[in-house]
Design goal:
Layout lengths: L2 H25 L9 H18 L3 H11 L4 H4 L4 H23 L3 H11 L14 H18 L3 H18 L7 H7 L6 H7 L4 H4 L9 H5 L24 H6 L10
The structure holds zinc ion (ZN) (2 copies).
The site of one zinc ion (ZN) has 5 residues, from helix 6.
Length: 259
């Protein structure tokens, strides 16, 4: 897989993920309220331009560089490829958990991450609502993780697609059947769990930092049970529906409550 193929595969993965999440949102809505689609898509367009400019497929480049240089865990320890891919997904998801948790602890990181939480609604488009600053700040950590793990390029591709599927799915205004939701959340983050993370109260906000797996929250004591029908008031106190430019300026204004 080269850089161009990497970007095509990732774009296809994102397309499929959006389509599936929107379909589920239609078929099994939780609150059936409108979303902040216009603002969120606006932020996503800016993010795509910023990350495309800085790092189109640099995770792929770093993975190949580490393999050539014999650097990183899986370039030293020999494991079957399928196991390398699975472990890379697990470890990169753990890094994402740690980064997300840091975003809620370190004031300067929260300034950027609050933009994600400032969405008063909770729908598939919330998955697009990130400040470009947050994405760019996370880049060195994510790239370092790829190198340290020695993740194969295939592992990085699978992780990015899996991550996109999880991201769009768990932000969906989706109410899964109770039994399915209960079984699924033993392993994976469900919309109910992540909806709780978007709650207005800090007790809700400080739970469920995971994106793909629930293991990290369970192991580190941040897991907060939340079923598909649990009602959550989402958003941050003091923010209403802001436009794209206001959302972009948010990290540089007075910090919001929450965190
Ligand atoms: Zn958060
Ligand atoms: Zn979220």
């Amino acid at each position: 897989v080269d850089e161009r193929e990497f970007q095509i595969l990732r774009a296809l993965g994102v397309g499929v993920a959006v389509a599936l999440a929107v379909l589920l949102q239609r078929l099994a809505p939780h609150a059936a309220a409108g979303g902040s689609t216009r603002v969120n898509v606006g932020l996503w367009a800016i993010d795509a331009a910023a990350t495309g400019l800085v790092c189109g497929a640099c995770a792929c480049t770093v993975a190949r560089w580490a393999a050539d240089a014999n650097l990183g865990l899986f370039n030293v320890v020999t494991l079957p490829v399928w196991m390398q891919v699975l472990l890379a997904c697990l470890l990169l998801d753990a890094v994402s958990y740690a980064w997300h948790r840091a975003n809620h602890v370190v004031p300067v990181l929260w300034r950027f991450h609050q933009v994600h939480h400032s969405d008063p609604t909770f729908t598939v488009s919330t998955a697009l609502r990130f400040h470009p600053g947050e994405l760019l700040l996370s880049l060195p950590l994510r790239l370092a993780a790829v190198a340290v793990i020695g993740a194969p390029v295939l592992g990085v591709v699978v992780f990015e697609i899996w991550f996109a599927l999880a991201n769009f799915f768990e932000h969906g205004d989706i109410a899964l059947p109770v039994g399915l939701d209960r079984r699924l959340r033993r392993i994976c983050v469900t919309p109910g769990l992540h909806r709780r993370h978007h709650g207005r109260h800090v007790t809700e906000l400080r739970t469920n930092f995971g994106t793909i797996f629930t293991f990290w929250d369970r192991m580190l004591g941040t897991y907060g049970e939340s079923g598909p029908s649990a009602r959550v008031q989402t958003g941050l106190p003091g923010t209403g529906d802001v436009g794209t430019l206001r959302a972009l300026a948010m990290p540089f204004g007075p910090p919001l409550r929450g965190r």
